[in-house]
Amino acid sequence: MYERERAQAWVVSSFDSRGSRPCKSARVVSSVKWRARHPEFDSRYRGLTYIPLEYSSRRNAYAYIALAVAAPPSTPPNPTVASTTIAPAENGTIPLYVHTHPPSPCSGDLLACRFVAAVFLAAVASRGVAARPLVAWGDDSDRAPLQTSRPFNIAHRGSNGELPEETAAAYARAIDEGADFIEADVEATKDGHLVCFHDTTLDDVTDVADHPEFASRRRTLEVQWANVTGFFITDFTLAELKTLRTKQRWDFRDKSHNGISPIITFEEFIDIALNAKRVVGIYPEMKNPVFMNKHVQWADGKKYEDKFIATLKKYGYGGKYMSPEWRAKPVFIQSFAPTSLVHAANLTDSPLVFLIDDVTVRTEDTNQSYDEITSGEYMDYMKKYVVGIGPWKDTVVPPTGDNQLATPTDLVAMAHARGLQVHPYTYRNENKFLHFNFRQDPYAEYDYWINGVGVDGLFTDFPASLRRFQEWTAKKQN
């Protein structure tokens, strides 16, 4: 939220000014790929995130506006910068002035050739809170609806097989590649902000170890019945997290995007989905709720789950599965913790999905084994609160000791008999994740699970490959 009605914008340019041109109306455009292609802006202006704003002029220039996640600098970030003051109009558009330039030589990117000025809006939020979008979302009636005729393509942490997980770039790529839903793990910062992050510790997918100012934060805590040592996300404020950069979890994946993208907030994640050119659903997880409630202080006696649901409601998410309200803004809320799902069911009518881990693992809240939870009796209980289950693949079809698939369990049949959806996780293209039955072919794996096992959605690290498989098989059926 802005604490003042007006804020200062800086026009950043490495070229000489050729004059100013007014922009009377700006609208959000869906391409976030530009930022992924031009990481120099992220590395140069750390602590800032921004969404693209497009405007028309006879020079066909582009501008980017930044939403500050830290207090604005006392001086413009570049000595060659010219500044001006902007304020949102009543209709949500932003009048602004930018410096425009003729196209300059560049490395093959047409947008980069046209774009030579970046506008950064520094919000004056004193605590490092990311400002809400200034541009009103447009009418959704002209956007292609969510497809519901085939199993859902769920981009697991975005297109994280190609880009660092849970980043704006990974989610934008997933949308471009045809994902029906983008999935996120939602955790909390020390100062109570919700961010998209999977682990309780920052060690594996950020450069936190390269920040000497945080060296003393490393410690050991109990997480889900085990002691874990590292830099815990709940020991960092949002502003501090925004100084970190993400990296790929595994060395065998493309590391060329390491050190570029920041951690994003839950609200920034939602913005990406709402800003898509077609209706794209979100699939957020209430991640590690027991740990979050233990280590983060919430106002007015609230809980992590309350903050989570309130954020979704703020952006208009609600409605029962397949209702008109749900189709307009599709969402599945997921969790491994049954008590969190029951609590959420009392706060929202949005569809909930119960995640199921390996049968040897125990739930973080009730200390039950997932072997017990996969019983028909327990499923009868949970179906009062959830519309589906999200099981680990090996819980549905256990592997043999020689990396072959054994006979499928009756878990999918049990769920379908109770009217529950089944969305297993996680599908990955790399050979090391494929059972020998599929002969190094991820499309054979998709075929087995969709047409053999009969699942209703798939969490995949590679939404492009799932989209291609479904397009190819649809053509054959026609």
UniProtKB/TrEMBL annotation:
GP-PDE domain sequence ranges: 151-470
UniProt keyword terms in alphabetical order: Glycerol metabolism, Glycoprotein, Hydrolase, Signal
Alphabetized GO MF terms: glycerophosphodiester phosphodiesterase activity
Keyword Hydrolase in annotation: yes
SUPFAM superfamilies xrefs: PLC-like phosphodiesterases
Assigned EC number: 3.1.4.46
Reaction(s) this enzyme catalyzes, per UniProt: a sn-glycero-3-phosphodiester + H2O = an alcohol + sn-glycerol 3-phosphate + H(+)
EC primary class: hydrolase
GO BP term, pick one: glycerol metabolic process
InterPro entries referenced in this protein's UniProt entry, alphabetically: GP_PDE_dom (IPR030395), PLC-like_Pdiesterase_TIM-brl (IPR017946)
Top-rank taxon: Eukaryota
Entry's family note: Belongs to the glycerophosphoryl diester phosphodiesterase family.
Name this polypeptide is given: glycerophosphodiester phosphodiesterase
Species, as recorded: Digitaria exilis
